[in-house]
Amino acid sequence: MCSTLYSLLAWAAIIYVSAGARSTGFKLAESYGDHMVLQSSPQSAEVWGYGQLGATVNLTFDGKSQLTKVRDGGDGRGAVWGVKLPPTPPGGPFVITVIQTHGANVDTVVLKDVLFGDVWLCGGQSNMEFVLTGMFDADEYLNNSVKFPEIRIFGVNRTLSATPMYDVIRRFDWAVPSREILSGTGYIFSYFSAICWVFGVEMYDYLQHPVGLVEAPYGGTPIKTWMSPDAIAECTKKGRPLADDKNSASHCWNGMINPILNMSIYGAIFYQGESDAYTPDIYDCAFEAMIGDWRAKFVGGREFPFGFVQLSTRMLSPEVVSGYPVVRWKQTANYGYVPNPLLLNTFMAVAMDLGDVKSPLHPVHPRYKVDVGKRLALGAQAVAYGDPTVVHQGPYPTRILLDYTNHIVIIEFSNGSENLYIQNNLGMEVRCEHSDGTEDLWFETEIVNIQSDLSEVHLNMTGPCAGGRSDSPNFRILGVRYAWRESPCSYKNCALYSIASKLPVPSFYIPIPHSNSEVYTVWVEDTLPSPLDGQCTR
Length: 538
Known about the structure:
The chain is α/β, with parallel strands linked by helices. It has 11 helices and 27 strands. The strands form 6 sheets. Strands 3, 5, 6, 9, 10, 11, 13, 14, 15, 16 and 17 form an 11-stranded mixed beta sheet that branches.
């Protein structure tokens, strides 16, 4: 990321710490506070904190009391206590009272205006951190924020740690939204995540019950900083070791994720990958391992919904085919879409058509965050909440017909069930092999059926593949790919979209198995997952 971004966004000073012992004074952990949202049923939210070793703690909630003891937390945590609340349906506000008794000493803490609802974690690097005030349509969202008093926000401080921390450092306390709070006017924090807020508004409109947004991004961070040592070791076991860099590996995990593992959450959204674009070889393993590890270690150990933003663009550089398109593919575990057998219960917002070359914060930080937040919310509604009426992704290839007699390739989408809006004839490429064994690099080929209301596109292979070799046996198609560029198109101007949902067809790469037949069909599902070969990065 650009080093000037820190000053442009008025970011707070970076905190670099190591884990250490906590005070034994009676208090709640740092992630609790007035106005917070606790995760509603069917999950059980946990409340924990610090106290005097051996003391009795009595927590009262909704007219019921629970007793526990303060114990040694081990690993430098200090003396801690914890109570699991009964599953509570969405609603509120509630008051939670916690009393510690140790001999004649009695201490009390009270949580006020507590709501129960769905808590979403928003993590990643600077595009998740991108300020609400910096996006397009910011005034509309800032002015309307007072209409959403049941959305509550909390900020985890950007914290790097060489060792695991067990309590979070707050960037700001739980808060009820307003223009002043979200824009930082008169407050100690200077912004809130644009994507996280738009996502939260969309989810509240859909759910009509409280939503908690926990913002925890850190700009310029590669994937390995968000992985625990266990997740990194998982890739090593698979023969996919990450670069050994003890100056950054697991540091965001240690300082920002490990401290909130006791927080019950409904799901997470994540926007990261730009910092891995030029060393993307192990990103598929790293991303899959990170998601699985987070799910295993957050309280409850459940396979919670995980949404992510497929990388947007960097510059309007139509010639660049490495980096970003490779990461986009690897973000899907080499399937091109999610959820899939390797990334269950996941959803994705395609952003390759949301580039912004005039962004004052560099084109790597597009201002079209409203589109991203809304696309993520569609994914959450369809996948996280299982709503079959919500379309959350654009069409995807399901079948390819290769007709060497007529020199045409027909790509069918969504099993013929979803019609395409074809805006232009750009973005398709084929790779060919000739009868003498020579292979060509990728050639651009035009879409020849420029008409909508069809579920397929037709590609003419004569020009790109045959050249001076017009006889069909002289070449075979080795692969087809689409939108395989760092910046494949301008704003919402890629070639292929769904007519019904207006969502883009994502970039894809489909290897074509060899056949001597003049006409044959390839079912895309049979080619997946498709790890990239060296040819696809050129």
